[in-house]
Amino acid sequence: MTANVTKFMKIVNGSNEHCCVPLCSASGRYNSSLSFHCFPKNVSLRAKWIHQVRRTGFTITQHTKVCSRHFKPHEIVTSKKGRRALVAGAVPSLFEWNNYSTKERPGVWERRARPPSPERVLEPAAAAEPIALPMVMDHDYEASPTVCVDRQHYEQLRQEIDTLREQLKICHLSKFGLQRFASSPEDIRFYTRFPSYKHLMAFWSLISTATSKMIRVTSRDKRATSTVTESPVTRPTKLLAIDELFLFLTYLSTGCTQRELAHRFNIHRTTVSRIIVTWANFLYTLLGSVCFWMSPAAVKDNLPPEFNAYSDTQVILDCTELRCQTPSSLVLQSEVFSHYKSHCTFKAMVGMSPHGALTFISPLFEGSMSDKEIFRQSGIQNLLTPDTAIMVDKGFLVDDLAPGTVYRPAFVIQRAQMAEADVLETQSIARLRVHVERLIRRVKENKLFETTIPLAISGSINQIFTVACLLSNFQNGPLVKTWANEV
């Protein structure tokens, strides 16, 4: 049955059935000579129908039918009662795009006449003889095992290949990643704050086994947990785990925006944000699980000679502030505004052992909070004992909160000047307490904390700052070079 012989005539009491095939307007209301057939229930046969119909994105129901125009005549049988049905395994094959015919279209080689093969013209004897190069055998078994190539053309192609290889090598070297700077300690120090590639690899060897169980932030409300070792094929991003660590360290060290990092690493900005949050949470959990608070005995074993007059000192405390974006809410502005910095800030308390190791980090608090209140809420009181002392600045009026001795510079109270003993004690304490400020300066060498912290990352800034403080123990040597041989 073809399109030319099928006539469409409006009939009385016609059915509402119609054909679902594209470019076919057959309907049971206008032609009673057509029959309409439902899609088969067999899964494989139904898939063949869908493939032949060439219509995707539609839902097949019991009313979705194909008319008899698209089946071959022998595929349609009529019962004694005049009911038309399809034979088993029938598949529609006659359509508008094949002109309602099953005859295969001849190929291009068959449709077009082939030009006569030109006869080979021999070169004069005076011309340069072509060189014979071995030809890679494929499927043309009638071809000669050698082929004649013009020497000059061959040399040009070879030079072009060499040029392309050099360009490809330059493209590989220009890829922004850890391996690009592996041979440059200055670049490693600039991008990661580690002194060399060897030190960075030593730190990576400590945490690499734990990355297989890293919890990745994939969206705001969805988290994916990986419990197997990841490969470059199965990873959520196209960066290796060590390159993701390099991206996170670069974000801390240089303070680059996420958009700039996305251009450098050739990934999407949202992917950069998720990598930063993922690694901040991962290192916060991993490094924070290690107890870096030292016992009084361990502190005394590593006590420098300069602290002999204050041998019971357990920790040296000081507060530091990070400038943050001003909130639009006036209530939040009043909470985070620091009169000392005249700006909205986050505030944290950092503790250092006498020999220079960072041993305590408090969470970030509002900039308006006093040093004494931060000391109260930080939880350091639970770590101190009555036989240990702390060394603080003048702003820490915590004598009633600390269980032990508090070494603090003296105040001038209703006196014209300090007593000679107070001056000497103040100088002695200030000379030792200044090392905690040097430790904080090491943390703030990460350019991220020199910028104004956007409120967009306020949910993870506490983890980021804590990780930066913990990494300072791995990235730097002793604060005083002479202490390296004494402790």
CATH architecture of the largest domain: 2-Layer Sandwich
Biggest beta sheet attributes:
7 strands, mixed
Reading the helices and strands in chain order gives: EHEEEHEEHHHEEHHHHEHEEEEHEEHHH
Please identify the structural class as seen in this structure.
alpha+beta
Task: Please report the distance between the alpha carbons of the first and last residues.
Answer: 99 Å
Contiguous helical run count:
14
- Relative helix content: 25-40%
At the first level of CATH, the class of the largest domain is Alpha Beta
Using only CA atoms, what is the Rg?
Answer: 40 Å
User: How many discrete domains?
Assistant: 3
Low-confidence stretches: 1-9, 220-229
How many distinct beta strands? 15
Can you walk me through this structure?
The chain has 487 residues and is α+β, with helices and mostly antiparallel strands. The protein folds into 3 domains: 1-104, no CATH class; 178-288, no CATH class; 296-486, Nucleotidyltransferase, domain 5 (2-Layer Sandwich). The chain is 33% helix and 13% strand. It contains 14 helices and 15 strands. The chain has helices at 43-53, 108-111, 151-173, 185-192, 197-207, 241-254, 258-265, 269-288, 296-301, 330-336, 371-378, 420-443, 461-475, 483-486, and strands spanning 36-38, 65-67, 76-78, 84-86, 131-134, 146-149, 215-217, 223-225, 313-323, 337-338, 343-352, 358-361, 365-366, 389-391, 405-407. The strands form 5 sheets. Strands 9, 10, 11, 12, 13, 14 and 15 form a 7-stranded mixed sheet that branches. Strands 1-2 form a two-stranded antiparallel ribbon. A hairpin with a 5-residue loop joins strand 7 (215-217) and strand 8. The chain is elongated and about 125 Å long. Mean pLDDT is 82; it is low at 1-9 and 220-229.
